C-alpha cells in the first residue's frame, strides 16, 4: 500500500539544520533553529530543572497512567503563571486548563474543540505568523484567513491595516494572536493595540485564540502576559495555548497547556470534557515528566526563585545580543537601518536580507539563516558576534 505515497518535501528548517551539521567549518553559525543557546552555543538543561529532576527521582512512586487532563497540580500552577495568582478569572469558575503535549499539542486540541463548537468558524492569522500554525491548525479543519501584521519596511506592526481587516471579521470567527515574543518578527503588540483588539472582539463577536510560547523571554513573566490577562478580564470567551518548551527549556518533554475561558461555569465544564474527548481520540494522555517538573518548580519557593533567575538570564542575554548585533551592523554601506532589532522582543527578528545575500552568507561564511531572513538572536554569542557582523556587512556591500 505504501507505494501510493508521494515523498514529502523536507521542512526547509530541517534541511537547513542538516546542512549546518554537515558543514565542516569551525566558525559556522546557526541562526536558524528556534531553540535558546547560551554564550557557549549550548542549549543546557536549566539547573532548576535538574534539581527538580533529582527530587522527582525520589518522589515518583508510580508510572501508572495519569489521566487525560494530566497533572491537576500542574494545571493549577500554569493558570497561576499565565494569569497571576490574584486574577479574578481564577475564581470565576469559567476557566479550565488541561495539560497538552507541548504548545503544538495545545494548539491542536484547542483547534479541534473549536471545530466541534463551531464547524464554520474561520481562523484569522497575522501575516507573517509561525509557519507551522498553518498546517497545524488548518489540518484541524479551519479555513485560514489572513490579516496584515508586520510591515517589513517600517519593521513595525501595521496597526491601521491590521485593525481595518479585523474590523471585517465576522462574529464567531477566531483570531490568532501571539501572546508575546512574536515568531517570526519579534514585533509585539503594544498594550494599546491589545486593548483595541479586545474592543473589536467585543464589538464584532470574534474570539481571540492566543498562542503564548515565550512567556518570560520578552520583558518578564508578568509583562509578557498583559494581553491575555486583560482579555480574560474583558471578554466572555478566550482560548489560550501555552508552552513550557522555551521558558523552562523543556523542548523534548512536550509540556504545554490548553486553556479555555467560557461564558459560564457550566460551559467551562463542558468545554474541558470536550477537550479531553479530543485528546483521547488523538494521543489519550499527555507525557508526565515535564509537567511534574514544572509543578515542582512552581510549587517550591527556592526552586521557583532559581528558575526565575535563570529565565531572567536567558531574557537579558537575548536582549544584549540584539544590541550587539544591531550596533555591529548599524553603519553599513548599504545604509540599512537595523535599530529595530533592539526594540523587538523574544528570540527572533527579520534581518531583511534577500535570497542572494542569505545564500552568500551560508555558502561563503557558513552563516545559516532561514529563507525569510528570520534570525534566532540566541545563536549569537561573544565568540561569533564580530565574525557575524563582518559577514553580514560583506554581503550588504
Ligand atoms: C509561536 C509558537 N507557538 C508554538 C510553538 C510550539 O512549541 P512546542 O515546542 O511547545 O510545541 C512554537 C515553537 O517554536 C512557537 O514558536
Order of helices and strands: HEHHEHEHEEEHEHEHEEHHHHEHEEH
The CATH homologous superfamily of the largest domain:
Type I PLP-dependent aspartate aminotransferase-like (Major domain)
Which structural class should the secondary elements be placed in?
A: alpha/beta
Task: State the helicity in percent bands.
Answer: 40-55%
Shape, principal axes of CA atoms: globular
Task: Return residue spans where pLDDT drops below 50 for at least 5 consecutive residues.
Answer: none
CATH architecture of the largest domain: 3-Layer(aba) Sandwich
Sheet with most strands: strand arrangement: 2-10-9-8-7-3-4
Query: Terminal Cα separation, in Å?
Result: 54 Å
- Let me know the number of strands: 13
Q: Radius of gyration, Cα only, in angstroms?
A: 21 Å
The fraction of residues assigned to DSSP E strands is 5-15%
For the record, the count of structural domains works out to 2
**Which molecules other than protein and nucleic acid are bound?**
pyridoxal-5'-phosphate
Characterise this structure.
This protein is α/β, with parallel strands linked by helices. It has 2 domains: 2-45 and 302-396, Aspartate Aminotransferase, domain 1, CATH 3.90.1150.10; 65-299, Aspartate Aminotransferase, domain 2, CATH 3.40.640. Helices cover 44% and strands 14% of the residues. The chain has helices at 12-22, 47-59, 72-83, 102-117, 133-138, 159-166, 191-204, 226-234, 265-282, 289-299, 301-328, 340-343, 355-365, 385-396; strands spanning 29-30, 95-100, 122-127, 143-148, 150-151, 156-157, 174-178, 207-212, 238-243, 256-261, 348-350, 367-368, 374-376. It has a 7-stranded mixed β-sheet, with helices on both faces. The structure holds pyridoxal-5'-phosphate (PLP).
Amino acid at each position: 500500500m505504501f507505494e501510493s505515497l508521494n515523498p514529502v518535501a523536507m521542512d526547509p528548517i530541517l534541511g537547513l539544520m542538516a546542512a549546518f551539521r554537515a558543514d565542516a567549518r569551525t566558525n559556522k553559525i546557526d541562526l536558524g533553529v528556534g531553540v535558546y543557546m547560551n554564550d557557549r552555543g549550548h542549549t543546557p538543561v536549566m539547573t532548576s530543572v535538574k534539581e527538580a529532576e533529582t527530587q522527582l527521582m525520589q518522589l515518583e512512586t508510580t508510572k501508572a497512567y495519569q489521566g487525560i487532563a494530566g497533572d491537576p497540580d500542574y494545571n493549577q500552577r500554569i493558570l497561576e503563571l499565565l494569569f497571576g495568582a490574584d486574577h479574578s478569572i481564577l475564581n470565576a469558575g469559567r476557566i479550565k486548563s488541561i495539560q497538552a503535549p507541548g504548545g503544538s499539542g495545545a494548539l491542536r486540541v484547542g483547534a479541534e474543540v473549536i471545530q466541534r463548537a463551531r464547524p464554520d468558524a474561520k481562523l484569522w492569522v497575522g501575516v507573517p505568523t509561525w509557519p507551522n500554525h498553518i498546517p497545524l491548525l488548518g489540518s484541524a479543519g479551519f479555513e485560514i484567513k489572513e490579516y496584515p501584521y508586520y510591515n517589513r519596511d517600517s519593521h513595525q506592526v501595521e496597526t491601521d491595516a491590521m485593525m481595518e481587516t479585523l474590523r471585517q471579521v465576522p462574529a464567531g470567527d477566531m483570531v490568532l494572536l501571539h501572546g508575546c515574543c512574536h515568531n517570526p518578527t519579534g514585533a509585539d503588540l503594544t498594550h494599546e493595540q491589545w486593548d483595541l483588539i479586545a474592543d473589536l472582539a467585543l464589538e464584532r463577536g470574534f474570539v481571540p485564540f492566543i498562542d503564548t510560547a515565550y512567556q518570560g523571554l520578552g520583558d518578564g513573566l508578568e509583562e509578557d502576559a498583559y494581553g491575555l490577562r486583560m482579555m480574560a478580564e474583558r471578554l466572555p470567551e478566550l482560548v489560550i495555548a501555552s508552552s513550557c518548551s522555551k521558558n523552562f527549556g523543556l523542548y523534548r518533554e512536550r509540556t504545554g497547556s490548553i486553556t479555555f475561558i467560557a461564558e459560564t461555569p457550566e460551559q467551562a465544564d463542558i468545554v474541558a470534557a470536550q477537550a479531553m474527548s479530543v485528546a483521547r481520540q488523538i494521543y489519550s494522555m499527555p507525557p508526565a515528566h515535564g509537567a511534574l517538573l514544572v509543578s515542582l518548580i512552581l510549587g517550591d519557593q527556592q526552586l521557583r526563585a532559581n528558575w526565575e533567575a535563570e529565565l531572567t538570564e536567558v531574557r537579558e542575554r537575548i536582549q544584549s545580543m540584539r544590541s550587539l548585533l544591531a550596533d555591529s551592523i548599524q553603519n553599513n554601506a548599504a545604509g540599512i537601518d537595523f535599530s529595530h532589532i533592539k526594540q523587538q522582543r523574544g528570540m527572533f527578528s527579520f534581518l531583511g536580507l534577500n535570497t542572494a545575500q542569505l545564500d552568500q552568507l551560508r555558502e561563503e561564511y557558513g552563516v545559516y539563516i532561514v529563507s525569510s531572513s528570520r534570525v534566532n538572536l540566541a545563536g549569537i554569542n561573544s565568540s561569533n558576534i564580530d565574525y557575524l557582523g563582518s559577514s553580514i556587512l560583506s554581503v550588504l556591500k
